[in-house]
Amino acid sequence: MNAVLEQTYPSRIEAITLLRNTNGEADIEALKDSAQHVRDAAASFGRAPAAKLWLAFAEAIDCIRFLEEWQRAVLSGEPDSDRLIRAARARLELIENGAGETVFEQEALKILRKIRDDLKQNEIAALRQQLASLPMPVAMYAVPEPTLPNWAKTQVTYEKKKSDDLAVAFLEFSINGSPAAQVQWLPSRQTNDLEIGIRVSRWPDEAEKLQLTPISIEPNSTFDLPTFEFERPNNDPPHLFRQRGRMVLHAPQSFDAHPYEFIYAAEFSPLKSEQPVIVAGQRTLRLDGTDITKNPITGYPAIDRKIIELREKLRLEPRIAESEVLDALTLLTSIGNLAGQAVQDARYPSPIYEAAFEQDVRQFLRQHPKIGVELEEQANSTGGRTDLSYRGIRIELKSERKKNLSPKDCEKFAEQAASYAVGTNRRLAFLCVLDSSSKTKPPFPVEDGLFIIPVETGTSPVYIVTCLIQGGLPKPSSLS
Fold first, then answer.
1. Residue 262: CB partners within 8 Å, gap ≥ 6?
2. Fewer CB within 10 Å of terminal CB in the chain, N or C?
3. Nearest Cα to Cα of residue 95 among 159, 182, 37, 11
4. Lowest mean pLDDT among 54-63, 143-152, 280-289, 304-313
5. What CA–CA distance (Å, rounded) separates 277 from 237?
6. Bridge partner residues of 396 (DSSP)
7. Considering only CA atoms, which of 134, 139, 141, 142 is closest in space to residue 15?
8. How wide is the angle at C-alpha 281 spanned by C-alphas 277 and 283, nearest 5°?
9. Which tens digits make up the pLDDT trace of 141-171?
10. Dihedral over Cα of 144, 150, 155, 160: its sign
11. Using the 8-state DSSP alphabet, how is residue 429 labeled?
12. What are phi and psi of 372, to 5 degrees?
């Protein structure tokens, strides 16, 4: 690990100074340069987690820059000034696609999402101040890439001498007409459209075609993905292409398996043409072939889809061990089924105390064949006693008998569950809240009661998998 704070932190100070500047018109060129300096700082961190935060900060600065340009263009009467606010919204989408669950990323998104509203020009300065005031963890060290052997260094040097301006292909994917998600669910044994959009910065003189080929460690028999080819264009760079192909996943996946992962590599032909082509943007395609129609998880399709979504969020957190994620999915499957039954069968028609709720949940979880004897009761943690525990994952139970709760209201219970998790040297815990208070309105969709609450501990977050179970429901006939 190499210390890089002294080299990188001045770029953050520069950015904050520019964002806080309230003396007259914003310096748009300075903001543009500042965003690039922050990106350079991100590259200095190598493979360290801080690199992701600094890249998000750079994109946020560019969002502000486009907003300032938009304001200037409107005041100057320039034509099509709205293109600039559309660019700011596109930058926001890039941040959303790559954002993790850290406080900095989520708070930055909360600030910038105002761009999607009917933003007034006099609100831009406030956005700048909020972004400048947002604290970011101080990263001191880089995790460098592995050192190349001498022969590899020689080869890289040769390529750089050959061309300092390498061709860059920026990719984006659409599946069945919609932008591809970070993890895209696709049913198996069904043909789907895969459309690729590509922006090529430069076309070498000797190249005739550009080919994009899918690369994967998956068995070839499990998928068919198209190879895309583009003929030499006649216009000046950058060159924009779009092409559509067909793809099929031949085999469904186990619920516990990771998504299929494919990387598209680009090369010019003939092969003697200049290589390599740097691929940027959405170069990786992650496809989830879990078939919840043939292999249901809870028996409730909407809940199954939500559990798959939560599964991917947990897997993206590098501090949570894979074994812990699998144990959490076992619990989530059973608790999700309980939440479905609670609404479908009105399982909790009247208010009950927490002790009675705990007894019912304990009995319900013990019936799950993967849980059974491994469910503990009243395990010690952090000087307190947890309600239930499965393989070291603490389960905190709450019962609200008087006040109607929304998913947002569950946040007040999350810190207690986080304390139990830390006391067991875990990064996640479960929180099950029963709202058995009397209601006069219909229930909300059950899947909306399943979510993850990140709890900041001062150094890094602990994740609380939360389930709000609905009770005290009115009879449908009473609502008419």
1. 214, 215, 216, 218, 223, 225, 284, 285, 286, 287
2. C
3. 182
4. 143-152
5. 15
6. 431
7. 134
8. 70
9. 677 665 555 555 554 444 444 444 556 777 8
10. positive
11. E
12. 40, -115
